[in-house]
UniProtKB/TrEMBL annotation:
UniProt keyword Iron, yes or no: no
Keywords: Cell membrane, Glycosyltransferase, Lipopolysaccharide biosynthesis, Membrane, Transferase, Transmembrane, Transmembrane helix
GO biological process, one term: lipopolysaccharide biosynthetic process
InterPro entries: Glyco_trans_2-like, Glycosyltransferase_2, Nucleotide-diphossugar_trans
Domain Glycosyltransferase 2-like stretches: 7-168
Protein's name according to its UniProt entry: Dolichol-phosphate mannosyltransferase
Record's GO cellular component terms: plasma membrane
Gene Ontology MF terms in the entry: undecaprenyl-phosphate 4-deoxy-4-formamido-L-arabinose transferase activity
Length: 240
């Protein structure tokens, strides 16, 4: 199989009932649009997510399955998928079914007609289908992040993203980095664009995080990213 133009990376942990419906939607959205692969990364699920994925592989030639030896979190799962990906561009989706694969062709169209210096097209959930407390916590966190990082991004928590693989792998890696991709891309000298996307109720299962967990981790990460931005240096280079 030749290298695809796009790799869709989906990190999962205990999402056995959401796997088949999401893969079906990815296939419906992208077959006939671009050459693609689907890279699922199982973060040591305690249910039979891996077995469900394996049962779908024979009928889905685009599907690849990776599994962590140790549970390592969403950012590590995304990076694992990106490192293994064969496409020059990466699309990410959360494994819970709340992101709509039907948005991916629109992100690809925006990229094809956009500025080459834009390396990240970030989904923006304009009509979130989460609980009131989760929406309030996200709005508060986004406001603090925007004030500290000046990343001009209304929603960094959306799992729907399209970015260049090479640009991503050049970013500093740390746990929870996936929530700061716009600021990190901008730190590297690239432009980012937010695009409104669909958001849906979770298909099955339960959220893996609560608002307190997100807040405690987010404060420390935010301070770290702000430090990285202040301490960064960029310069043009010419070969002599």
């Amino acid at each position: 199989m030749q290298n695809p133009a796009l790799s869709v990376v989906v990190p999962v942990f205990n999402e056995r009932d959401n796997v088949a419906p999401l893969i079906s939607e990815i296939l419906a959205a992208l077959r006939g649009v671009t050459a693609f692969e689907i890279v699922y990364v199982d973060d040591q699920s305690r249910d039979d997510t891996a077995a469900v994925l394996q049962s779908l592989k024979a009928a889905t030639p685009e599907l690849r399955i990776l599994q962590h030896a140790i549970q390592s979190g969403q950012s590590t799962a995304i990076r694992t998928g990106v490192k293994a990906a064969r496409g020059a561009w990466i699309a990410t989706l959360d494994g819970d079914g709340q992101n709509d694969p039907a948005d991916l062709p629109r992100l690809l169209t925006a990229r094809d007609s956009g500025d080459p210096s834009v390396k990240l097209y970030a989904g923006w959930r304009v009509n979130r289908q989460d609980s009131g407390s989760k929406r309030w916590a996200s709005k508060y966190a986004n406001a603090i992040r925007a004030r500290m990082l000046h990343d001009d991004t209304p929603d960094t928590g959306c799992g729907t993203k399209l970015f260049e693989r090479e640009a991503f792998l050049d970013l500093p890696y740390f746990d929870h980095m996936h929530r700061y991709l716009p600021a990190l891309m901008q730190r590297s000298g690239w432009k980012t664009i937010s695009i409104p996307v669909n958001h849906r109720p979770r298909g099955a299962g339960v959220s893996k995080y609560n608002n307190l967990q997100r807040a405690l981790v987010g404060i420390r990460d935010l301070m770290g990213v702000a430090w990285l931005i202040v301490r960064s240096k960029r310069t043009a280079v010419r070969e002599l």
